[in-house]
Task: structure prediction
Amino acid sequence: MSPRAAGRLTESSLIRAVRQRAAGGPGVRVGIGDDCAVLEPASGTLLLATTDLLLEDVHFRRRYAEPADIGWKSVAVNLSDIASMGGRPRWALVALACPTGTSLEEAEAFYAGALALAGEHGVALVGGDTSVSPAGWLVNVTVLGEVTLAPVLRSTARLGDVVAVTGTVGRAAAGLAVLDRAKAPPGVPAEWLADVTGAHLRPRPRVAEGQWLASAGGVTAMIDLSDGLATDLGHLAEESGVGARVEIERLPIAESTRGLARALGDDPLAWATGGGEDYELLLTSEPNAFSRLGEGLERATGARLSRIGEIVADGAVHFVDARGRERPATPGFEHFAAERRRG
Amino acid sequence: MSPRAAGRLTESSLIRAVRQRAAGGPGVRVGIGDDCAVLEPASGTLLLATTDLLLEDVHFRRRYAEPADIGWKSVAVNLSDIASMGGRPRWALVALACPTGTSLEEAEAFYAGALALAGEHGVALVGGDTSVSPAGWLVNVTVLGEVTLAPVLRSTARLGDVVAVTGTVGRAAAGLAVLDRAKAPPGVPAEWLADVTGAHLRPRPRVAEGQWLASAGGVTAMIDLSDGLATDLGHLAEESGVGARVEIERLPIAESTRGLARALGDDPLAWATGGGEDYELLLTSEPNAFSRLGEGLERATGARLSRIGEIVADGAVHFVDARGRERPATPGFEHFAAERRRG
Result:
């Protein structure tokens, strides 16, 4: 086979390459190659299913997102949904459409990125679809998972519950602010740049954390941060029929994020409240369970849990400063507003 | 709410509208509205999972495909995959991206089309995703199903098996040929036009037929006809490590298809062998089981089963005429060939 022929992207060459890399796994009776995947869920479990689109120039730009990044992230956003229910991700179906002129190597790099993250979490690639795209890279990933205990919903927060978040907020928005610029801002430490751009391009879903939290007892509701704290807390509050009050001084914002905000003249609080794609877990807990949960989570997984506010009766999300004054929240991502872009 | 506000497409307005229509169903613990659907598979079953992209100007054109048609077909192509394994479809996740300027009514019509077919098969819409699209309508549907007996694979055909197909072949290609023209050909009966364009726009997946065939005994392999007889029989033969010989005179071609071919100056055999998207079931059976299967299937479901050839040792697909002379097959759909379009 000539090098040129080897690089030509056809459906069969791509499927052949992906099948070689995706070697099945536990619970996979039939993987890639038949009309359906045939899977064997563990007995006594409930099935979790989630699906997400990632579209070029809506969710990412090719100028800074390599095919492997796109593959990684398209799996990450779905694993994060499984994590937010306290589930164990098991199987992924990956549909990819690439524009004419895409090479087999680029398409393979996409799958390598997807498989790298899937492999870290024991998730098998069991199916998908491929097509030419009329405009840019288009990805849809579906992840199936399992939960043995009752899944943690977003609709079950109760009045007086603590509102808490894992890790830090605003880091992915800082990364996007850097990536959106042609040049990195001068005088900023390289590790800050790597930290925030890595958070944006290759988020690490809180899968182990979600499972630990769901099994620890005392977590009353959970959601992952995809559209931004203000929007996602709004979803949790609305579905639970309650409101929420967040103390902005308590928001965990990384040093890298604050440093980039200074360098770029941006507001780190706007990133922390309105920026999407942190893929941290936002949860509510019984008030007297919070300390135990925070200490236990850090011991078990290394992740910090920060108390950022409480559930209130008033059906809205309020951000208040140390003196209790309300601060307007930056609205999150609206998927049909073409002028604003996530990612 | 003013009529204008009612028609504005936002993520929340769309999700609200879809949630009202998708009311859960058996085995649905949590449907649309949380991070994941929570599903309860029937005990003792294996899980089937399949996913398909449908992209504007690759798989369909908006000039002739209404939103409700796109919704219908995006579910149909996945149900057909479940059918080809002999499975029972249960749950669907539907991801939709529409261009700026799409109205809420158009997006709702898409879901109405999807739900109409899903409802016919007892399939609940349990999740999805929505986004603005950078270019045209983009759809990805994932369907999950169950199978109690062993699923029928495409890789288990054996030497000497009968090759058979349900219904007719080439009808969807005839429909596409009509739809691709600005005007319908003159002097063609309206019922022919309705038959072939309906086959293309609103295919009826052979779900009941697939389940009956899988449980009847004697079916050795099965696949659905999405990319065309030559291509899909090629897949079945390749995965089974065999070849196939098809007698072109035996191909079941509808009167409407033949009539349109005459009117348009096209070759009905090219449609029958190379045209995709008939979503019929192509199967192999033990030779002495064929008569029983054909009679039983027609009695149980009304669908005709036609014997069209046999499995041979030579690892290729041959189309032969009544005198045994080989006839070149029209190649099927290649998903990365931008110059050729499916749908």
Remarks:
- Chain A has a mean pLDDT of 92.
